[in-house]
């Protein structure tokens, strides 16, 4: 299952020693401390994590063989990833964003509603953007609405409460 999972987007450099400023693509940004290595998208290279620290909801990392600002600058606007076997086990009724993307969504009476195109992390609960042709609507990721998520078959069933699809 050698699938790459994006865990951060490199948005800038920091300092002159090659640190990369990353926007974390994970709920638990301190997860980076557990990682021994990541893959850089730009050159598809496995790199050892030499240092990690945090400030203002950003992750600052120093990677093997990126030792100066000029080299670090070439990685801007690219991603760092891990392999699927580096993922943590999630609690029941929790899902990785990549598992939900493009999932087909049906009402609890079997009507096809569209596909999950975007997931917004709002703090209180996630919100899924469902699109079908030219229509788009937002549904809250709460138990009253999302009734079933079948990751294996890429299918979600929701309870269409009054006003939800308007």
Automatic annotation (TrEMBL):
UniProt subcellular location: Cytoplasm
Superkingdom, natural source: Bacteria
Domain (Ribosome maturation factor RimM PRC barrel) ranges: 98-160
GO cellular component term of the entry, any: ribosome
Ranges of residues in domain RimM N-terminal: 7-86
UniProt xrefs under InterPro entries: PRC_barrel-like_sf, PRC_RimM, RimM, RimM_N, RimM_N_sf, Transl_B-barrel_sf
Keyword annotations from UniProtKB, A to Z: Chaperone, Cytoplasm, Ribosome biogenesis, rRNA processing
SUPFAM superfamilies: PRC-barrel domain, Translation proteins
HAMAP family: Ribosome_mat_RimM
Matching PANTHER family: RIBOSOME MATURATION FACTOR RIMM (PTHR33692:SF1)
Similarity field: Belongs to the RimM family.
UniProt domain comment: The PRC barrel domain binds ribosomal protein uS19.
Subunit structure: Binds ribosomal protein uS19.
Function field: An accessory protein needed during the final step in the assembly of 30S ribosomal subunit, possibly for assembly of the head region. Essential for efficient processing of 16S rRNA. May be needed both before and after RbfA during the maturation of 16S rRNA. It has affinity for free ribosomal 30S subunits but not for 70S ribosomes.
Name under which the protein is recorded: Ribosome maturation factor RimM
Gene: rimM
């Amino acid at each position: 299952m050698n699938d790459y999972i994006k865990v951060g987007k490199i948005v800038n450099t920091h300092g002159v020693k090659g640190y990369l400023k990353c926007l974390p693509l994970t709920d638990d940004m301190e997860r980076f401390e557990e990682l021994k290595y990541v893959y850089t998208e730009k050159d598809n290279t496995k790199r050892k994590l030499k240092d990690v620290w945090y400030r203002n909801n950003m992750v600052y990392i120093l990677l093997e063989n990126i030792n100066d600002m000029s080299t670090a600058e070439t990685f801007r606007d690219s991603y760092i990833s891990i392999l699927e076997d580096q993922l943590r086990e999630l609690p029941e009724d929790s899902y990785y964003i990549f598992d939900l993307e493009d999932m087909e969504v049906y009402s609890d009476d079997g009507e096809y509603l569209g596909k999950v195109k975007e997931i917004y992390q709002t703090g209180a609960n996630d919100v899924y953007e469902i699109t079908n042709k030219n229509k788009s609507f937002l549904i809250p990721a709460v138990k009253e609405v999302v009734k079933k998520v079948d990751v294996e078959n890429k299918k979600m069933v929701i309870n269409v409460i009054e006003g939800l699809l308007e």
